[in-house]
Specification:
InterPro entries: 4pyrrol_Methylase_sf, 4pyrrole_Mease_sub1, 4pyrrole_Mease_sub2, rRNA_ssu_MeTfrase_I. This is 16S rRNA (Cytidine1402-2'-O)-methyltransferase. The chain is an alpha/beta fold. The protein folds into 2 domains: 114 residues, Tetrapyrrole methylase, N-terminal domain (Cobalt-precorrin-4 Transmethylase, domain 1, 3-Layer(aba) Sandwich); 111 residues, Tetrapyrrole methylase, C-terminal domain (Methyltransferase, Cobalt-precorrin-4 Transmethylase, Domain 2, 2-Layer Sandwich), CATH 3.30.950. The chain contains 10 helices and 10 strands. The radius of gyration is 21 Å and the shape is elongated. It starts with 10 loop residues before the first strand and ends with a strand. Helix 8 links the parallel strand 6 and strand 7.
């Protein structure tokens, strides 16, 4: 008697999510929306916000029939194995972020790495990325750039880090990019204006793809003359030493 054949593996689909309360059709290609509508298994940072996204997609079955597993900072490393189980059983699974692209400044990267190690097919789908959009609109160097996630929260450590990044930017002609929790945007901007050279070019890119989008590049010296230039909204900070 021949041995039973293993089930075909499912595909892990990386599904971008709008960067704010925007209809998915406004920022996601129609084929991406259609692929997401066909799925019955999802992995998300927060199940509640994932359901809101799926509802906006007009999933053709009741949301109660959709399986959503959570992957966030509280997920233990040994629990990642369990998240792959539907894929091992042959089901396609959608990985969604809270906003933007899964796996970029996102806990989904750990799951994607594990799926790659198991030989599971991973397919990134097209959608909005605040980092790429900010770089595109900044006018800063798009040939060499580095994303640093979140910088230190303590002012003295953050100042030292900014000076080191500015030196690297000058040496490599490299755009430096990072993000901050929106309620700390003002503190971050104050640190930038205090520690960077007046001639350094600084871009603030807030609420990209949303009606209140703001994207502007000025020198540090020029920003010091502006009043309330940054809102408590999702913002990408970019600078280039010139």
């Amino acid at each position: 008697m021949s041995a039973p054949q293993p089930l075909p593996r499912g595909t892990l689909l990386l599904i971008p999510v709008p960067l704010g309360p925007t209809p998915p059709a406004a920022v996601l290609p129609a084929p991406v929306c259609e692929q997401a509508r066909q799925l019955r298994h999802f992995i998300a940072e927060n199940a509640k916000s994932a359901r809101a996204f799926l509802k906006s997609l007009e999933i053709p079955v009741p949301l109660q029939e959709i399986q959503i597993q959570e992957l966030n900072e509280h997920t233990r490393a040994n629990a990642l194995e369990g998240l792959l189980q539907p894929l091992r059983q042959g089901f396609d699974v959608g990985l969604v972020s809270e906003a933007g692209c899964p796996g970029v400044a996102d806990p989904g990267a750990d799951l994607i790495r594990l799926a790659q190690q198991e030989g599971i097919t991973v397919v990134p789908l097209i959608g909005p990325s605040s980092l790429l959009l900010a770089l595109m609109g900044s006018g800063l160097c798009g040939q060499r750039f580095a994303f640093h996630g979140y910088l230190p929260a303590k002012e003295d450590e953050r100042g030292k880090r900014l000076k080191a990044l500015e030196q690297e930017s000058r040496r490599q002609n490299q755009t430096q990019m990072f993000i901050e929790t929106p309620y700390r945007n003002t503190q971050m901007l104050n640190s930038l204006l205090q520690h960077l050279a007046p001639s350094t070019l600084l871009c603030l890119a807030s609420s990209l793809t949303l009606p209140q989008q703001r994207l502007r590049t000025l020198s540090v010296a020029q920003w010091r003359k502006e009043e309330d230039p940054v809102a408590k909204e999702p913002t990408v900070f970019l600078f280039l030493s010139v």
